[in-house]
């Protein structure tokens, strides 16, 4: 499900592209027209790679000021198929855009933009608007493709100060970030790295050739590169990471506050995640990375020279856990600002994740601690975005062994896994002390997966699919059928109670990820749903605009049925809780803010707020086998603490009001972190 995903939303770069959906209102002075590329009239072809595997193509042809492109990729049966015609005007700014086809969830696309007579008009299915202009502004399509970003970059490079307002809101900026030489039989070619700002929480990097046309764009496991040049990406990604790390180190140095001596937090309302109780007038003393003492105010000796923070009666809790993430670099700041000090990454490019984990641990990059799960699937048209696609038992066992050697604690299997490979994977993983979790592989029910040795099931929809026959779990049917028919399942029926009893008997953990389903089932084009409604106006304009795309396509008259199915998901979570099944809180969507909403939804489902907070702290630490050091505020534990301006035990939504995050004894101020990534501070 999100940079920003391997489950429900498009991941890494593709989410950046989905979020890079337009913004701006005023304009800057007109600049000279952009010179057409030297190769105008020639066709440029690009390969889309997910996890190193070909998944689609981009074809771009430019004739003078007119650009015609097609963009298509397959993401496990989802993905866009777009045909675009763009006419460029002075300064490389689009004066006409026409896009047809279908978007990621296969909803039809008919997007139009026109700049004429000093005014701009646009209609894309989620937005309809017009604006009088006094200076140039750039319309970035809602249904954006990578070549749109390259044209925006070329226009920014031609602008006098390398910045342009965006329509309908926001501003884009560009900076040079390096270059590289590519050698081939045709000779040496220089490509240039640029950092686009204003489209996401952090820079969007892309490589342009000497003619300022797209050469490649790569983030995490997603790459789009000139066809035939796939082999150069390892070097380019290395240079890109070097450029990004400089900025990351600067931010880490600026925003991580390390006390010179001891740290004392006084006058706090302490939440005890063991009992669910709170106690007022509490002091917590921290030395280095660990908690030294916890007691009543006045009873804990505070060393001379200690930094003292008066909590003023606000609530002090253990750091939160997000147990379902697919990390991108800027996710680290989003998590820390929201009070998330630990996460479990459930599928990512191995090299990227190991590098990110190292940078988080050394403090070179701001972010939470990471518990890693290794992803395994089998080849096929719906295979997950991974380099680890196994066809034989030997390959499967080698993958498990490799993950264990690298410090992974869990194996996550996916929907296309060859069923004959599941037993040896489970046996080897358990022998090595690794847990096994995942999607339910196609041809198997959730009950069968549990009996085969699953320790955990991800996503509520698979609980419903256990009672539906003939659904191909590799395809989008795993969402659509649950949306259309999930309301029909009686969560109190004997078959459901029997299944839940099996989960409890086998100590199987459930990771519901309600938040993305709320967006998928209830989302409507042009409307920001409740998933992120509480924070939408704080987000960068382009990110906010991406929230307008809506959820899955629904047949006419089915909107209420999807709403009822989502409400039944809440009832299922309540039934899990009442049965005594262990639940963990994960997002698989926007980091930080998504976890806050996930916890709110558990309370809406009928779970008591103290138990929900326990799920997100001590409960998660226990499942991750880190409760010796984390999950409670007690002497000897690692100093992972969050201070909340309110009482989330009484009002769970107060969990959004984090005013201080402490991880390993290092202090982070959300009021500083959020503006650093374009998010308005909490009011």
Describe it for me?
This protein has 683 residues and is α/β, with parallel strands linked by helices. Among the domains are: 12-253, no CATH class; 447-583, no CATH class. A 15-stranded mixed beta sheet has the order 8-7-6-5-4-3-2-1-15-14-13-12-11-10-9, with helices on both faces. Strand 10 and strand 11 form a beta hairpin. Helix 6 runs parallel beside helix 7 (422-431) and helix 10 (477-485) packs across helix 14 (559-579). The longest helix is centred in the middle third of the chain and has 23 residues, at 233-255. The protein starts with 11 loop residues before the first helix and ends in a 7-residue tail after the last helix.
SSE layout:
Elements: H1 12-19, E1 43-50, E2 53-63, E3 66-73, E4 81-88, E5 94-102, E6 108-116, E7 119-123, E8 128-132, E9 138-139, H2 146-158, E10 163-167, E11 171-184, E12 187-197, E13 204-208, E14 214-219, E15 222-226, H3 233-255, E16 263-271, E17 278-287, E18 290-296, E19 307-310, E20 315-318, E21 320-325, H4 331-337, E22 340-345, H5 350-362, E23 369-376, H6 393-405, E24 410-413, H7 422-431, E25 435-438, H8 446-451, E26 456-458, H9 461-465, H10 477-485, H11 494-505, E27 509-511, H12 514-522, H13 541-546, H14 559-579, H15 593-604, H16 609-623, E28 641-644, E29 658-663, E30 666-668, H17 670-676
Parallel strand pairs: 9-10, 16-19, 16-20, 21-22, 22-23, 23-24, 24-25, 25-26, 26-27
Antiparallel strand pairs: 1-2, 1-15, 2-3, 3-4, 4-5, 5-6, 6-7, 7-8, 10-11, 11-12, 12-13, 13-14, 14-15, 16-17, 17-18, 20-28, 28-29, 29-30
Helix pairs in contact: 4-17, 6-7, 10-14, 12-14
